[in-house]
Amino acid sequence: MFAPIASTAVHILDGLEQGGGFFGWAHRVLFETEMRAAWAAKAIPDLQAFLPHIPDTYEADDSRTEAEAVANIFFFNCMGQDQANGRFRLDDDELDLTWDDPVADEPVFGEIEDLLVDFSEAMGGRYVPMPTWKHFGDRKLTVTHPLGGCRVGVDRDNGVVDAVGRVFDESADDPQATHARLFVVDASVLPGAVVAHPTMTIMAQALKAMKAALP
């Protein structure tokens, strides 16, 4: 059900990327032809082919399978390692995440986009960015695996927890002193991106914390 919508959306984005307007050059010609024909016939134009819709199973010309609808589309899913230099701050009990420079300016995102352009051209196609990155947004990021916030450090000046997740005690004289039996056991202790899918790393860190917490 989503395939025809995705196909139409990508074609619209491709048209905007190529400077051909909302439907792109090829679709624009067909669209204008349909509009002229409808005007000449004084009829309502049939815009179904230009709009996202669920296929009509009773219409032979509108019965593409989901595979056919996205046959010329390839979705890239990329992972990279940013500089992990964002900072959390409390503002009247509200948690605020900020960067010294816009996070989208980090080099890793430019390198990924350059690589996707090369891949797309090598496959005989064109690179079309996500709409929240360009056209309908200004380089907005979608974070699927948020990490950090209570990062591991050697002492309280460099982190929130020690190597096994024990929370540093800011009131103690020793900068490495921790609160008794107070642990952080989740992805927030990871100091930055691990490049690969982080689930196993999170689990390994959690196991370390649980072993340290055992009496």
Kindly list the characteristics that best describe this protein.
215 residues, 4 strands, elongated, two-stranded antiparallel ribbon
Report on the structure:
The protein is α+β, with helices and mostly antiparallel strands and 215 residues long. It folds into three domains: 67 residues, no CATH class; 63 residues, no CATH class; 70 residues, no CATH class. Helix content is 32%, strand content 9%. It has five helices and four strands. The strands form two sheets. A two-stranded antiparallel ribbon has the order 1-2. The longest helix has 18 residues. The chain is elongated. The protein starts with a helix and ends with a helix. The relative contact order is 0.10. The model has no long low-confidence stretch (mean pLDDT 83).
